[in-house]
């Protein structure tokens, strides 16, 4: 019985990994606004980075969403990788980026 349970759990874990069915993988529990407020707002709302809703985002958005994600994850210019918080996952950084640029996209 124990061996069958172990095989079943291993198969379930592999399948979940392949399908990306965890909550974090799907972004179900990621709060981009909270992540932005906790990690990004100090600079972006404080005048050291492009402000939310400013025209500074027009050219950046033209480069594409994936480019924005890459720059936020890897850092660019004076902005540190992951906003200086190395513990943020790629999905968390992407959610924060989405929150930051959302008002600009709606213009």
Question: What does it look like?
Answer:
The protein has 107 residues and is mainly α. It has one domain: Orthogonal Bundle (Cytochrome Bc1 Complex, Chain D, domain 2). 63% of the residues lie in helices and 0% in strands. The chain has 7 helices and no strands. Helix 3 packs across helix 7. 15% of the residues are buried.
Number of strands: 0
Radius of gyration over C-alpha positions, nearest whole angstrom: 18 Å
The CATH class turns out to be: Mainly Alpha
CATH topology, what is it called?
Cytochrome Bc1 Complex, Chain D, domain 2
Order of helices and strands: HHHHHHH
Overall pLDDT score: 77
Distance between the termini: 60 Å
Fraction in helix:
55-70%
Shape: globular
Residues in β-strands, percent: under 5%
The number of distinct structural domains comes to 1
Note the quaternary state here.
single chain
Number of helices: 7
Strand count, sense and closure of the main sheet?
A: none
Structural class: mainly alpha
pLDDT under 50 segments (min length 5)? 1-25
CATH superfamily: Cytochrome c-like domain
Give the CATH architecture: Orthogonal Bundle
């Amino acid at each position: 019985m124990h061996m069958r349970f172990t095989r079943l759990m291993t198969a379930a874990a592999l399948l979940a990994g392949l399908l990306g069915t965890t909550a974090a993988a799907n972004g179900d529990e990621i709060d981009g606004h909270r992540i932005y407020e906790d990690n990004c707002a100090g600079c972006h709302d404080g005048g050291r980075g492009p402000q939310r809703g400013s025209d500074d985002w027009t050219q950046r958005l033209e480069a594409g969403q994936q480019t924005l994600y890459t720059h936020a994850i890897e850092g660019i210019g004076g902005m540190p990788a992951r906003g200086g918080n190395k513990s943020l996952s790629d999905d968390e950084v992407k959610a924060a980026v989405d929150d930051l640029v959302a008002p600009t996209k709606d213009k």
